[in-house]
Write a structure and sequence with these properties.
The chain has 305 residues and is mainly alpha-helical. It has helices spanning 2-29, 33-37, 44-54, 60-72, 86-121, 126-140, 143-157, 169-199, 202-209, 214-253, 258-268, 271-299. It has a single domain (86-299), classed as MetI-like fold (Orthogonal Bundle). It has 12 helices and no strands.
């Protein structure tokens, strides 16, 4: 296990390095940020002076070496717009996003797992068809559209929740429910099909023949053996939420988190801030994947590293 973890950590370093270099290249291809930062009537001398101040007049390889050197020291420089350390800005925004994502994932798990188990226990019934169809619809719905519908109905029409903001449970519920819709559908589907497979397995038939109760077969046998698939999907959903889907929901609800920051950063072409954001997302996703892989050994003793 120790050797496996060390190898995965080395692999994580390579992935983060590759992603960071790719982002560096993309940010230098999409356009000149000087044109965004200065008014249209700015002179060529003013543009050249700002380009020199930002270090954009240096050869590309020099800029890349400086970027990589700073990255390994966790120093991405100062945000061009806010003039404070870029990593500090990102770390300040992360707690709000983690709160939103954690709440959404808890809601998804609490709803999807029971529904998936019920559908698997009653295969082919109307209930199974309804739950399966509902989960497929949930997967297909765009989160920003769901968020807008929730705002119009629950916030504007009924007045139960706030349309935007941060700080109370009434601010949190709607964006968390919106963000939970897609992972809820994913988890319900994977639970339903994994549990159905396990309930039809030979060991489940043997357990029933020996007099085991349905509850025991469902939870002591089938659910534990289906857990690896469920954990895998949960880890993928968590990474996907942090990597992109949260941004649309945060913008719709005015949630002051990491996703909103990314959208603003892209619009302003703030290279240091964007590079710090991508670095942190890559680190988080790599460690989520590592945690998921390690958990397999707990749920299935046959899996050993």
């Amino acid at each position: 296990m120790k050797r496996y973890i060390i190898m995965r950590l080395l692999y994580t370093v390579v992935v983060i390095l590759g992603v960071s270099i790719l982002v560096f290249i993309i940010t230098h291809v999409i356009g000149n940020p000087v044109n965004t930062m200065l008014p249209l009537q700015a002179t060529d001398a003013e543009r050249a002076a700002l380009k020199h101040q930002l270090g954009l007049d240096k050869p590309l390889m020099v800029q890349l070496s400086e970027f990589l050197s700073g990255m390994f020291r966790l120093d991405f420089g100062k945000s061009w717009w806010q003039q404070v350390p870029a990593l500090g800005i990102v770390l300040h925004k992360i707690p709000a996003t983690l709160q939103l994502v954690a709440t959404a994932l808890i809601i998804a798990v609490m709803v999807a797992i029971p529904l998936g188990i019920i559908a698997a226990y009653k295969p082919g019934t109307i209930l199974d068809r309804v739950l399966t169809t509902a989960s497929l619809i949930g997967i297909c719905l765009p989160p920003f559209w769901v968020g807008l519908m929730f705002v119009l109905f629950f916030a504007v029409k009924l007045g139960w929740f706030y349309t935007s903001g941060y700080g109370t449970i009434r601010h949190l519920i709607l964006p968390a429910l919106t963000l939970a819709v897609v992972p809820m559908g994913h988890l319900a589907q994977i639970v339903r099909f994994s549990m159905a497979e396990q309930l039809n397995a030979q060991y489940s038939t043997t357990a029933r023949a020996k007099g085991a109760s349905d509850f025991s077969v469902l939870f002591a046998h089938a659910l534990k053996n289906a857990a690896t698939s469920i954990v895998t999907m949960g880890g993928m959903d968590l990474g996907r939420l942090l990597a992109g889907e949260t941004a649309a929901v945060e913008v719709v609800f005015g949630w002051p988190g990491f996703g909103t920051l990314i959208v603003d950063t892209i619009g302003r072409q703030d290279f240091p801030l964007l590079q710090a954001e991508v670095f942190l997302v890559a680190v988080i996703i790599c460690f989520i994947n590592l945690a998921v892989d390690i958990s397999y050994g707990y749920f299935d003793p046959r899996i050993r590293y």
